[in-house]
Design a protein that fits this description.
28% of the residues lie in helices and 20% in strands. It has 480 residues and is of the alpha+beta class. The structure holds adenosine-5'-triphosphate. Adenosine-5'-triphosphate binds next to strand 1, strand 3 and strand 5. It is an enzyme of class 2 (transferase).
């Protein structure tokens, strides 16, 4: 495997000034950083070694690096890995900075793309897949969050942790290879994201280049309509829809785009448009949607909207020291705060503990609680705090209504089906730990719950859990 050219020269965090947290993944923080030698901006993905080892994600990280190195710099439609290095605590991936963020953000913002934009970005995706597959790589998690935009609004595909590298000289990749060992171990699971996963990955967990063609169909559907083709209140129901090809086109869906999507969203992988092309993906290129397009030079991208996009130019201040020590990392982490909706951020009462309630107050509150639709799940215990939380397990996150009550209990309910899904068991050994304003962990003696508050109240959740612990288990509590 060829290392990135520049890797020959040893690099370290002190070659960069770290300016801003661009985003966070389950196991990583991505910073905007500036090379001190060239002033060039990069996105640096930083992964904490202990976290990776504890969460058993080493293979995922290695896979991502391996794929990025295989991709190299020959195709403009992929995030490029410039350097990798490590220190005692962290791994660093120096990547192309995708200045214009995620495709998903643009879909959310504009609801849908017009046909000119759809054609253009579908074509960039086709060219990207031609290159990716020619390198023997199946992405397996292609979705609008993993398609970023560079400063000129060209796509940059990212996130190769779930990718599969097909053995060299293997034309199709129906047979899994050695680099797929984790996948084998998880036969009853699948990689990727529920809404974009192909039927074959659900039924026999096999994947091929055609699995990415399925995802291409899903993305084209989403950019035309603003919606994902397979939607449902639970993963189980989404999977049923995928397996039954149960989806509809909203009114007004462009006819030509519909024809292409229909030819890509086909249950049998080999029957998808392009899947059996001798020269991939001639048959997709020849589709009516792309008539008149110059595949050798797509030209500049059309504007996604008439309104000028206010992409904020994030400036890295000149007075910062290079490197990423703990103090810098914490400061930058806190800088993430203004991105959260601050004006409506409610502060919890500082002086009074959540558990400081008289018996009369508990009675009154319980009476009022009867009109709360979640009252039926809490066995008449008083709800001290409730909120929607994404409960992560593996690559999945399920949104649950969490209910912290006297007792103590920490129940969680599926807010769509209104079914009680479980309870985090309470004991003196419980411990809440905030990673940042959104992500927090609840440690119990036997398990670690990985939780994310989309509203950004993780710190408050941790505070109240610790208060309840101090109330019921004062000996084991630090927050007395
Ligand atoms: P997970 O690991 O949970 O699947 P992820 O793949 O999104 O999440 P990262 O790759 O660490 O995790 O990215 C975290 C966030 O950082 C992304 O959501 C994206 O908004 C931002 N980001 C990632 N890479 C870049 C980049 N090259 N340029 C700009 N922003 C980026």
């Amino acid at each position: 495997m060829t290392p990135p050219v520049e890797e020959v020269r040893k690099r370290s965090a002190s070659d960069y000034v770290f300016g801003k947290v661009l985003g966070e993944g389950s196991f990583s923080t991505v910073y905007l950083a500036k090379d001190v030698h060239t002033n060039k901006e990069y996105a640096i993905k930083v992964l904490k070694k202990v976290h990776i080892i504890r969460e058993k994600k080493t293979e995922y990280v290695m896979r991502e690096k391996e794929v990025l190195m295989l991709l190299g710099s020959s195709c403009q439609y992929f995030v490029r890995l410039y350097w990798t290095f490590q220190d005692a605590e962290r791994l660093y991936f120096v990547l192309t900075y995708a200045k214009n963020g995620e495709l998903l953000k643009q879909i959310d913002k504009h609801q849908c793309f017009n046909i000119e934009c759809t054609r253009y970005y579908a074509a960039e995706l086709v060219l990207a897949l031609e290159y990716l597959h020619s390198k023997g790589i199946v992405h397996r998690d292609l979705k609008p969050e993993n398609v970023l935009f560079d400063e000129n609004w060209h796509i940059l595909i990212t996130d190769f942790g779930s990718a599969k590298i097909v053995k060299e000289n293997t034309e199709k990749c129906d047979n899994e290879t050695e680099s797929d060992t984790t996948f084998h171990k998880r036969r009853n699971s699948f990689v990727g994201t529920a809404q974009f996963v192909s039927p074959e990955m659900l039924t026999d967990t096999s994947s091929s280049y055609a699995s990415d063609l399925w995802a291409l169909g899903c993305i084209i559907y989403q950019i035309v309509s603003g919606l994902m083709p397979f939607r449902g209140p639970s993963e189980y129901l989404i999977f049923q829809k995928i397996l039954n090809l149960d989806y509809v086109y909203p009114e007004g869906f462009d006819k030509t785009a519909k024809d292409l999507v229909e030819k890509l969203l086909v249950i049998v992988p080999n029957k998808r448009l392009g899947a059996t092309d001798v020269k991939p993906y001639t048959s997709i290129r020849e589709h009516e949607l792309f008539i008149g397009l110059n595949w050798d030079n797509l030209g500049p991208p059309p504007r996604i909207s008439d309104v000028s996009d206010n992409i904020s130019d994030i400036i890295i201040p000149d007075n910062l020291e290079p490197g990423l020590d703990e103090a810098t990392a914490s400061r930058l982490q806190l800088d993430l705060l203004p991105l959260a909706p601050t004006p409506s951020r409610k502060k919890s009462q500082p002086s009074r503990k959540i558990t400081d309630l008289s018996p009369e107050e508990i009675e009154q509150r319980l009476e009022a609680q009867k009109s709360n639709p979640y009252h039926v799940f809490v066995s008449s215990n008083l709800i001290l705090k409730q909120g929607l939380i994404d409960k992560k397990k593996g690559l999945f996150a399920r949104r649950r209504m969490f209910l912290l009550t006297l007792g103590p209990h920490l129940y969680y309910v599926d807010p769509v089906t209104m079914v009680l899904k479980g309870e985090i068991p309470w004991s003196g050994g419980i411990r809440a730990e905030a990673k940042n304003f959104k992500i927090f962990f609840v440690h119990t003696p036997n398990r670690k719950y990985y939780l994310e508050d989309p509203e950004g109240y993780a710190l408050e959740w941790c505070k109240v859990i610790e208060e309840v612990k101090a109330y019921y288990f004062p000996e084991q509590s630090e927050a007395k």
